[in-house]
Design a protein that fits this description.
mainly alpha; transmembrane; MmpB-like; transmembrane helix; membrane
């Protein structure tokens, strides 16, 4: 990598989208675990 290369920082909206997707995946994983517990109890 050259010193003249631009910073490898994603734009602000892309970072926001990545954070939203990360939160969504965590919520989806928690929902799956909850569903497995509910199915297992029955």
């Amino acid at each position: 990598m050259l010193w003249s290369d631009p910073e490898n920082e994603p734009p602000e909206d892309l970072r926001d989208t990545q954070n939203m997707l990360r939160r969504l995946s965590v919520l989806l994983a928690l929902a799956m675990v909850l569903a497995m517990l509910v199915i297992g109890v029955r």
